[in-house]
Specification:
This protein is an all-alpha fold. Residues 91-111 have low confidence and may be disordered. The chain is globular, with a radius of gyration of 19 Å. Helix 3 crosses helix 4 and helix 8 crosses helix 9 (158-184). It contains nine helices and no strands.
Length: 185
């Protein structure tokens, strides 16, 4: 069964088609969830909630554009909603956004020298970042969202978004350099 047949069957609430769709896309969507979550358990919860949302909203998928892109948007939005809820609990701006203008004069160079560090190791570094850093970094790097839009999505200022991104890049670069030094010494 190809994607269009699977989608059509899912629109008719065919359970075996839903299972097949889940099995086909769950690994990729889990990767999306893990990029935005602090832990595996939360990511699994988001994956579950995301597929519930997919199966209830699949009728709104028009067939225009990539189905995987449509799925990704649902999961990213769900992860961002989770982030906003967590943000209320932990008051993100008090912990990380006090001095938003510290890094604004630094040119924004998106290139990172990551050498030949394995992908999983990089993902582990990103996963270990503070939540605010990780969320903004993921939105900029993986979703190509501009800072103005990130600010609106997260309820922060554009300057705070830029600052978080700069700090995330710096943290990542420092960890990568440390790993490379150990590797080549």
């Amino acid at each position: 069964m190809d994607d269009s047949q699977l989608i059509a069957a899912c629109k008719k609430q065919n359970r075996s088609a839903q299972k097949a769709l889940y099995e086909l896309y769950a690994p990729k969507m889990m990767a999306v969830c893990l990029r935005y979550c602090q832990n595996d358990e939360t990511a699994r919860d988001l994956l579950h909630d995301g597929f519930l949302q997919v199966f209830t909203q699949i009728g709104s998928y028009s067939g225009k554009g990539s189905f995987e892109g449509w799925l990704r948007k649902i999961f990213v939005n769900l992860a961002l909603e989770n982030y906003r809820q967590e943000k209320k609990k932990f008051d993100f701006l008090n912990d990380y956004g006090k001095d938003e203008t510290d890094f604004l004069d630094t040119p924004e160079d998106d290139s990172l020298d990551i050498g030949d560090i394995p992908r999983q190791e990089l993902l582990n570094i990103i996963h270990g970042m503070p939540e605010g850093y990780r969320t903004v970094f993921n939105l900029v790097i993986f979703e190509d969202v501009p800072h103005k839009e990130i600010a609106s999505m997260l309820g922060i200022t554009e300057n705070a978004s830029r600052s978080q991104y700069f700090r995330a890049k710096t943290l990542l670069q420092n960890k990568v350099q440390s790993i490379l030094k150990k590797k080549y010494l």
